[in-house]
Amino acid sequence: MRDELDRRYRDYIACLNRRDWDDLRLFVDADVVHNGTVLGVAGYRAMLERDVAAIPDLQFEIHFLVIEAPHVAARLQFDCTPTGDLFSIPVDGRRIRFTENVFYGFAEGLIRHVWSVIDLAAIRAQV
Amino acid sequence: MRDELDRRYRDYIACLNRRDWDDLRLFVDADVVHNGTVLGVAGYRAMLERDVAAIPDLQFEIHFLVIEAPHVAARLQFDCTPTGDLFSIPVDGRRIRFTENVFYGFAEGLIRHVWSVIDLAAIRAQV
Question: Complex ipTM, two decimals?
Answer without folding.
Answer: 0.95
